[in-house]
Amino acid sequence: MNILDYSAKDPAAVLVTATAAEAIDAMISRRMGAAAIVDDKGIVAGIFTERDVLTKVVLSGKDPRKLPVHEVMTVPVLMATRGTGIAEALQVMIDNQHRHLPVVEEDGTLIGMLSIRHVLERKVDELTKQLAESVKA
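Above: the chain sequence. Below: its structure as tokens.
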């Protein structure tokens, strides 16, 4: 299995010219806790997370409908590529206390979003299948 098997393949993403509200809408509609912020070529320029919503939008008192997301996104962005192993990606997430990691092509184009939730769901499914097989044996 590669990293894309554990990643959301249609991640929340908005253009760098979007507002914070548009990024929040993308996160809500895709049920994700982070949105990749991309340029017009799909290259990741930043990430906007639930933590950013709380610390940079809500506490600022600014109107998210008027606040450019590029002013409140997190940069630089830690990212993985399709060649990154799942164990390596998880270690990066744990070491940096990040719950989301954009997965990109070598040129930085977004192709997925790894989240702790997706990894846990996948691992639980794998363990459940292993247990079911061991009971049958």
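The chain has one domain: 3-136.
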